[in-house]
Amino acid sequence: MGRLHRIGIGILVLLLMPALSGCLSGDGILDVSGNRGIPGSLTLACLDDSKYTSMVIEIDYEPGYLPESTSTDMLKQRLESVCAKPMGISFVFTETDFSIEDTWSANDVRELGDEAKSSSPQSGSTLTWQILFPAGTYDDTSVLGVAVDASTVAIFKDSIDEAENIFRRPSAEKIENSVLVHEVGHLLGLVNTVYTSPVDHEDSSHPGHSNNEDSVMYWAIESTSIANFFDNDLPTEFDSDDLNDLSGLADGSISCTDQLWRP
Question: Is the CB of residue 188 less than 8 Å from the CB of residue 57?
Answer without folding.
Answer: no
